[in-house]
């Protein structure tokens, strides 16, 4: 299988983590995966890799956008001779590979990860929203199946004319993300927090498309009403400096974290606050639940399917005020017994969402697509 993406490790985001897990699971099963993704200047430890030069987007500098020509990519695919191509992102590289797959009659599938039309409003190109949707519909309908992370997103895409959609949710390594991480106590001590100080956490990009202004307003209310509450924000982005100034000494901003360090930062929290309205799934929410945190989130997109309101966290309607969101956080801060009960339920749910089972379902989707195209070829030969 050839996996084509405009984001991959060491990029820190939900898409890159998901595709990294996909690659790992398939490789461990004995499949051979060719990776085609941007050149980040890091060392590569595997052979089946084709990296592409790109540019950083001015409004999203963490993202490297590969630019044409892509002749070398096409030649690498021809030499690899994949049974199926999975295009995970829809920009220039994905478009070029889509057309190449059609020319070579290679089965091609896609996955839908990001609501780019919703992001467009945050970066001054909201005028292009209808054009973006038309392009995305055309792109994904040009593949044999499109894998979508939540039923809510499937329903949205079906209304917009997307075809052949299949559910592909996300998993979590609950043996890695867990509440009893060895670095939890040391980390809280390093931040100057006591063992009983309640900590509200956030892990994600700190940027307008994550609705962080709303989050900051809610957290300001929480800290004003409960000065003993501590705030931990993990991630980076264009809104970080503003939030640091607004939230003051109660907040610790840890930047991007990876591996064990990231898992320890999750474990240091007691309640996870997430206000994004643009998530097709919300990997960080599942990681927080595995880390033993109940979640307070807006009922939007895939997040509303992960969090069970009243059981593993609290869901707030998207049109609610930041004060309402803050009050939901305070309900859990002020009721440790309820918070603990929800934490156990959140952890139990996360333990049931293994990557291996989810990726096996996706692999079966690949096999289904390959078999269908082979049958079509046989039919064409015999008619």
Characterization of this structure:
This protein has helices at 14-28, 71-80, 92-104, 116-122, 129-141, 151-159, 184-190, 212-225, 240-247, 259-267, 283-290, 303-306, 322-333, 336-351, 355-382, and strands at 2-4, 34-38, 49-52, 54-57, 60-66, 85-87, 108-111, 146-148, 165-167, 199-203, 230-234, 251-255, 271-274, 295-298, 313-316. The protein has 383 residues and is an alpha/beta fold. The chain has 2 domains: 2-171 and 354-382, Rossmann fold; 184-351, 3-Layer(aba) Sandwich (Rossmann fold). It has a 7-stranded parallel beta sheet, sandwiched between helices. A 6-stranded parallel beta sheet has the order 12-11-10-13-14-15, sandwiched between helices. It has a two-stranded antiparallel ribbon with strand order 4-5. Helix 8 links the parallel strand 10 and strand 11 (230-234). The two termini are 30 Å apart. The mean pLDDT is 93.
């Amino acid at each position: 299988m050839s996996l084509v993406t405009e984001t991959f490790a060491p990029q820190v985001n939900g898409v890159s983590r998901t595709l990294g897990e996909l690659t790992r699971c398939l490789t461990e099963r004995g499949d051979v995966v060719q990776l085609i993704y941007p050149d980040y200047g890091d060392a590569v430890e595997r052979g089946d890799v084709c990296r592409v030069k790109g540019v950083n987007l001015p409004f999203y500098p963490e993202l490297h956008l590969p630019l044409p020509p892509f002749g070398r990519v096409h030649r690498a695919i021809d030499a690899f001779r994949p049974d199926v191509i999975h295009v995970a992102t829809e920009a220039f590289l994905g478009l070029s590979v889509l057309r190449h797959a059609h020319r070579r009659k290679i089965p091609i599938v896609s996955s839908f990860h990001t609501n780019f039309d919703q992001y467009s409003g945050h970066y001054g190109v909201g005028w292009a929203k209808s054009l973006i949707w038309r392009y995305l519909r055309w792109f994904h309908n040009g593949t044999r199946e499109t894998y979508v992370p939540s039923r809510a997103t499937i329903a949205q895409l079906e209304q917009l004319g997307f075809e052949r959609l299949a559910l592909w949710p996300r998993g979590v390594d609950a043996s890695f993300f867990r509440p009893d991480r060895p670095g939890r106590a040391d980390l809280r001590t390093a931040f100057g927090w006591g063992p009983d100080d309640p900590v509200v956490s956030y892990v994600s990009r700190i940027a307008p498309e994550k609705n962080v202004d709303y989050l900051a307003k809610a957290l300001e209310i929480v800290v004003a009403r409960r000065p003993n509450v501590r705030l931990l924000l993990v991630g980076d982005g264009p809104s970080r400096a503003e939030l640091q100034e607004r939230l003051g000494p109660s907040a610790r901003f840890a930047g991007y974290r990876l591996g064990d360090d990231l898992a320890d930062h999750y474990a240091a929290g007691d309640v996870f606050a997430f206000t994004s309205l643009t998530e097709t799934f919300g990997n960080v929410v599942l990681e927080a639940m595995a880390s033993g945190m109940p979640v307070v989130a807006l009922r939007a997109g895939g997040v509303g399917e992960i969090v069970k309101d009243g059981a593993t966290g609290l869901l707030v309607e998207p049109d609610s005020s930041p004060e309402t969101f803050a009050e939901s956080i305070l309900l859990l801060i002020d009721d440790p017994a309820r918070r603990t009960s929800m934490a156990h339920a959140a952890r139990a749910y996360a333990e049931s969402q293994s990557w291996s089972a989810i990726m096996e379902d996706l692999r079966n989707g690949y096999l289904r697509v390959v078999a269908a195209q082979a049958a079509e070829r046989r039919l064409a030969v015999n008619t």
